[in-house]
Amino acid sequence: xxxxxxxxxxxxxxxxxxxxxxxxxxxxxxxxxxxxxxxxxxxxxxxxxxxxxxxxxxxxxxxxxxxxxxxxxxxxxxxxxxxxxxxxxxxxxxxxxxxxxxxxxxxxxxxxxxxxxxxxxxxxxxxxxxxxxxxxxxxxxxxxxxxxxxxxxxxxxxxxxxxxxxxxxxxxxxxxxxxxxxxxxxxxxxxxxxxxxxxxxxxxxxxxxxxxxxxxxxxxxxxxxxxxxxxxxxxxxxxxxxxxxxxxxxxxxxxxxxxxxxxxxxxxxxxxxxxxxxxxxxxxxxxxxxxxxxxxxxxxxxxxxxxxxxxxxxxxxxxxxxxxxxxxxxxxxxxxxxxxxxxxxxxxxxxxxxxxxxxxxxxxxxxxxxxxxxxxxxxxxxxxxxxxxxxxxxxxxxxxxxxxxxxxxxxxxxxxxxxxxxxxxxxxxxxxxxxxxxxxxxxxxxxxxxxxxx
Length: 454
Ligand SMILES: Cc1ncc(C[n+]2csc(CCOP(=O)(O)OP(=O)(O)O)c2C)c(N)n1
Ligand SMILES: [Mg+2]
Fold this sequence. Notes:
The chain is of the alpha/beta class. It folds into 2 domains: about 40-380, 3-Layer(aba) Sandwich (Rossmann fold), CATH 3.40.50.970; about 415-450. It has helices at about 35-40, 65, 100-105, 110-135, 150-155, 170-175, 180-190, 200, 215-225, 255-265, 295-300, 310-325, 355-365, 370-380, 385-405, 425-440; strands spanning about 165, 240-245, 270-275, 280, 285, 305-310, 335-340. The two termini are about 45 Å apart. The chain binds thiamine diphosphate (TPP) and magnesium ion (MG).
């Protein structure tokens, strides 16, 4: 059973010690230039099947050319190409067969699918409440996961309790699936806590705002997992994988390249899960890469797969395969979940300054929650009783968030000097002393109160 209570699909484990197959076709030819037509040109083409289930290398080409040794351009269509994405549900919620990944979802019941739907709906409600609270001055900042629920909830449901996650800062869907109380996530965004939850209890590390740095922490942790003898034992309760979530923009950071090197040469049991939401604040993915982001990994010796990140089933299946490979000793996998940041980067951002409403509308029509809803409705698996109880649960969550956040109070500004180092530090102490003396110079001012420290 996963931490979410889902049974695991009928997994086809990788052969222990499976090695990456290397970069597709070994091509050095330049990638075909990206064009807008290729980016938003309608529904994804039929997924290109990887040829080796154990360690399939990424390819956007048709299998025949991917297997070819000729110098074909392997990465057609640029970084936003929708061709070659693993997809099990179309944008309108029809189930499409996939010879490789069907096995990973075969055991999922309607109850399991409703559990995923419920998680996605609740996480979206959390996003809405938190954004409103930021606007009311209760949070300093907030970063929504809006639009990325399927990538996060699908991959999160594939985890086992002993697995360990290293997230960045908008992985609320994974946090929720790992049992983190979402109000604890808001402790960080309110500024009352440096973290907010116990990473060991949840197998879910603290959020990291230094872009890409946690991919190194994850890889190092995964190398430690091997040294602890927790990989390839064949015991499903013991074998452990590590997952790190990061964005398209993060792949331009040196830290991520270093993590890929260490993951590859050490065959670390880590899944490098990149949510390509097409934006790094106001920078489009086309400014981060000329080829699909996933195409980077084979150059490091890491197999990669592109998945439709708005398809919760495909996200689940692809992650389940990658986790199984990691746990069994097959090494790292790079997953690019192609999705879209439907909201602003954070509450400090105004995306209407840099992207078109046509693009936003295109992706609104590909809403990941609506996709699963349509699929469940087509199976007659969304009874009105379930929907009514979910709506009530959402309202209760909203109430819980509002009352909990408002009761958190305000930390003194001087608390920023706490926990900087594990042991006393002369420089920090000097800064604290100066700050406290500066603050006390305002004590005679009318209206001063402890609660004014925001
Ligand atoms: C090392 C570092 N450089 C720059 C920043 C400022 N910054 C915050 S978010 C962000 C964009 C990240 O984009 P992406 O990796 O695509 O993640 P997304 O926000 O889209 O989820 C940047 C540059 C930072 N936090 N850390
Ligand atoms: Mg991004």
